[in-house]
Amino acid sequence: MPLHLGLDSSTQSLSALVIDTDTGKVVADRSVNFGVRLPHYRSPNGFLANSDAAIKHADPLMWVEALELVLEDLRDSGVDLGRVAGISGAGQQHGSVYLAKSVDAAGGWSLAAPLYEQVSPLLSRKTAPIWMDSSTSAECAEIAAALGGDERVAAITGSRATLRFTGPQIRRFFKTSPAEWGKTVEIHLVSSFVASLLAGRSAGIDLGDGAGMNLLDLATGTWSQALLDATAPGLRDKLKTPVPSPTVVGEITGYFVKKYGFAKGTKIVAFTGDNPSSLIGMGASKPGTAVISLGTSDTVFAAMASQRTDPRGYGSVFGNPAGGFMSLACFSNGSLAREEIAKRFGLSWDAFASAIVDKTKPGNGGNLLLPYFVPEITPRLLKPEPRWFGREAFVAGKDAAAAARAVVEAQALSMRLHSDWIGEKMHTVLVTGGASRNRGLLRVLADVFQATIIPLSVANSSALGGALRAAQAVEGTAWDDLYARFCPPEHALAVTPVAGAQAAYQELGVAFEAKLKELLR
Ligand code: XUL
Hints:
The protein has about 525 residues and is an alpha/beta fold. The chain has two domains: about 5-275, ATPase, nucleotide binding domain (Nucleotidyltransferase, domain 5, 2-Layer Sandwich); about 285-455 and about 490-520, ATPase, nucleotide binding domain (Nucleotidyltransferase, domain 5, 2-Layer Sandwich). Helices cover about 40% and strands about 20% of the residues. The chain is built from 21 helices and 21 strands. Strands 1, 2, 3, 5, 11, 12 and 13 form a seven-stranded mixed beta sheet that branches. α5 (about 135-145) packs across α11 (about 225-230) and α14 (about 335-345) runs antiparallel to α17. The radius of gyration is 22 Å and the shape is globular. The termini are far apart. It binds D-xylulose. D-xylulose binds near residues 94, 131 and 328.
């Protein structure tokens, strides 16, 4: 009976998840960590070192190699890829790949060489800017000015001109590398790039991920001519027409049939961004349920009942792959900030959780950390600037337990503050991502949001979203059927708020906002 494969090409790894729609089971779940399995790309955290902290690029060939590795892992672990009827997936949002030859012209991949060797000569730009890049302040200002102000950009595209978004990144490339720009004939997002590799032909960017480019007119679902003109000359010709998320963009190309045993005719459904994909994988595509995703970036998102934009200018509106829109607030100091504290104090993840739950209390005795170890998206901070306030030992970096609680409390308070524009009070919040099983994090989130926090049985909701989207598009199964079978919340792991914590977080929230204002001044 049919299987469906979901892929997630995220910041630090490429994951694959296979579902069986007859049995309602996940039959395989594999992941290739770039730093561990592909050390020759010198990208332990998924991006290349750069002396300029604002520049964050990755080698797209690393994603190509990872795709082959994860398919090898699936095949070698006995998954019958010949039973896969549909493939879809997701990519980290905003990242872009630049080609000197369209995949349409080059994609008859040969079995004589690995795929990355065949993709390498196609690249007009050796590296891909990713979502962590913050080097485009000038370009954002230019785009906003050309449109008559940031409000206008937000009214058309759902977001102000935003550093990490693809349009400003494209403009910077056009300005700084005219020769390579001149050679570029096709631009992809990470999502449409991976879909194109599998289909052996150029796949369109879907409306979910396309909304993260500052180029898409959300009202019409087409590229906005005004934004194209403000970004770079001739850009329209380098972008395929955007496609609705459930579009079948092609069938798997012969290379993958012969090498991995896929069946001829296996459908490739448009890939989307990792957050829109998670919205599906969490079963949260109808308004009313908020999601917190704890990954390299932390994100708070929800399907939208009515379209609105963030008055502070940090949040975004993306396409909901099940139709309509979703709101999102993104925090770049997610797992990187938590890992920094764990590493600095030699804490295992168990010890990190225990420090929070067993050794410290809500409000952390007034200790407060502004956890900005890398440039921050929300609020916008162009330089890493961690700041410690409170007791002497804490400020001197000698209190491991307080530090563990402090990083998580500040992250949760920032999420609460910066997601208020999303509307509706959050009574129940679904949580996903690598850190979503850490009881310390769940405890703090429940107490700060005063909401019940519920993890999902599948941690990788973005890859699951890909598999569900493939099943929906290929078999025509209703979302509710798929959600009932594959997205049951783990009620046994739900964490309910302690009412007594409310006052502590009222007070700490005020202190956090005040210190943040000082830092931003
Ligand atoms: C969302 C964002 C990140 C990336 C990486 O706008 O920039 O969440 O999608 O996961």
